[in-house]
Design a protein that fits this description.
The chain is 44% helix and 12% strand. The protein has 18 helices and 11 strands. The protein has a 5-stranded mixed beta sheet, sandwiched between helices. It has a 4-stranded parallel beta sheet with strand order 3-2-1-4, sandwiched between helices. The radius of gyration is 23 Å and the shape is globular. The protein binds flavin mononucleotide and iron/sulfur cluster. The site of iron/sulfur cluster has 14 residues, from helix 16 and helix 18.
């Protein structure tokens, strides 16, 4: 579809962000059109064949049944990395589950998706729910878990209902429940409604919330693999991580790895937003140049130039245009450039953007979303916002730059969960790359008000 067609489709529907046909080698969006989400449609796209394959059930793709160890080895070989933020190797995480633990073990899907800029998991659940369900069943088989939950963001009721409907279809077809496809494997999967707080996406905050408590993160260790839901061994993965699994089982780990680049297997869905012509979700192989992704999204708004990009959701440090244009979109390249691929939410900023105002907006978000358990985060996020706010409102002091860095220093690495780091890192990056903009605003304010000089 060309850019004009995509634009008129956006204008006609007002909502569609992923049916633009501008993906590259899609594995998750392949064949989707917005209406073909039902079980019969998914089966027509080779759906549940990977599950049949591992269970040795009739109708599966070629090959003998696979043992749980073989499934984990295949996922390790694929170099699939968690799509929720940290990019942790999925096969390795699965191998941490103590499979011989005699009591209940749990599998949890993180569909909380609260990271500003990220809007991929809701589309996945809405338009391809069975791929997530199949991925979860395969994961449950690999780790010997018999009960699972999908914790779905609290404000997307339609998506929650869609997922419930898909679960019903899967149960009725014998893909979920007891004795799946005539095997001895049982797996009960439930949808759980989230509570609409960003912190409920942090894995241990999510577990607390799932248990019916306040979504406040737990101190780690112990990690969820040994002490998770209700204190039992638990594995948590992101929605997109699970959705990648059926393709890996059908095509093999090396094929998935070959789609991406070493240590970064497969495709990734990027939610491209901000100052681009065609904002939306784009699925492309890991390792695709940023310049190509930007081109798919229609480029920077007409008449404007690229100023900066937040490459992985609001927690990821901002990068200036010249650095970003030299990056490929994968975990290692973005980390080397000084940021994070995170959830893959690519926030594009053009030359009209004021970095002080942008940081003020980000800092307000983290202050608002801090759960308040740790003093550095509870107090520090408020400090960050207040200092940036006073710079922005024309009352900044020259010493504010050092003060911001010092407050960020006192938050980063000193909190129970990574929300503290997520609040501190954008501040440090904004100052590192755009310090003159902050200083100019402070200077302008001082010159504009000579009668009431601000003390340094
Ligand atoms: C404040 C905070 C919010 C998070 N929100 C999400 C989220 O909405 N979805 C998600 O998958 N991971 C989120 N994460 C990361 C999870 O803690 C966890 O690492 C992830 O779900 C693991 O899945 P993965 O290995 O498949 O990436 C968040 C982390 C933090 C610190
Ligand atoms: S870092 Fe912030 S959000 Fe995380 S536990 Fe501490 S106070 Fe709560």
């Amino acid at each position: 579809m060309n850019a004009n067609q995509v634009l008129s489709q956006f204008q006609a529907t007002g909502v569609q962000t992923c049916f633009h046909g501008r993906h590259i080698n899609p594995q998750i969006y392949a064949g989707l059109n917005g209406t073909n989400w039902r079980l019969k449609d998914y089966e027509a796209r080779q759906g549940y064949q990977a599950l049949r394959r591992i269970l040795g059930a009739a109708g599966g793709s070629e090959g003998a049944a696979m043992t749980p160890d073989q499934v984990i080895a295949t996922v390790k070989e694929s170099a699939l990395r968690g799509r929720g933020g940290a990019g942790f190797p999925t096969g390795l995480k699965w191998s941490f589950m103590p499979r011989q633990f005699p009591g209940q073990k749990y599998l949890v899907c993180n569909s909380d998706e609260g990271e500003p800029g990220t809007c991929k998991d809701r589309d996945l659940l809405q338009f391809n729910p069975h791929q997530v369900i199949e991925g979860m069943i395969i994961a449950a088989y690999a780790m010997g878990t018999t009960v699972g939950y999908n914790y779905i963001h609290g404000e997307i009721f339609q998506t929650y209902e869609r997922f419930e409907e898909a679960l019903e279809e899967a149960r009725a077809a014998g893909y979920l429940g007891d004795g799946i496809l005539g095997s001895g494997f049982n797996f009960q999967l439930h949808a759980a409604h989230g509570f609409g707080a960003y912190i409920c996406g942090e894995e241990t905050g999510l577990l607390e919330s799932l248990e019916g408590k306040k979504g406040q993160p737990r101190f780690k260790p112990p990690f969820p693999a040994s002490y998770g839901l209700y204190g039992k061994p638990t594995t948590i993965n992101n929605t997109e991580t699970f959705a990648a699994v059926p393709w890996i089982i059908r095509n093999g780990g090396p094929a998935f790895l070959a789609v991406g680049k070493p240590n970064n297997g497969g495709t990734k869905i990027y939610s491209v937003s901000g100052d681009v012509e065609l904002p939306g979700n784009y699925e492309v192989p890991l390792g695709t140049p940023f310049a190509k992704l930007l081109e798919l999204a229609g480029g920077v708004r007409k008449g404007r130039t690229l100023k900066a990009v937040i490459p992985g959701g609001s927690s990821a440090p901002v990068l200036p245009a010249d650095i970003m244009m030299g990056c490929t979109m994968d975990y290692d390249s973005i980390a080397k450039a000084g940021s994070m691929l995170g959830s893959g939410a690519v926030i594009v900023m053009d030359d009209t953007r004021c970095m002080v105002e942008s940081l003020k907006r980000l800092s307000y978000f983290y202050m608002h979303e801090s759960c308040g358990q740790c003093t550095p985060c509870r107090e520090g996020t408020g400090w960050l916002w207040r200092v940036v706010d006073r710079i922005h409102s024309g009352h900044g002091k020259p010493s504010d730059m050092d003060l911001l860095n010092s407050v960020a220093d006192n938050i980063q690495g000193r909190t129970i969960c990574a929300l503290g780091d997520a609040a501190a890192m954008p501040v440090r990056a904004m100052i590192k790359h755009f310090r003159p903009e902050f200083e100019a605003m402070i200077d302008k304010a001082r010159k504009a008000a000579p009668a009431t000089p601000v003390q340094a």
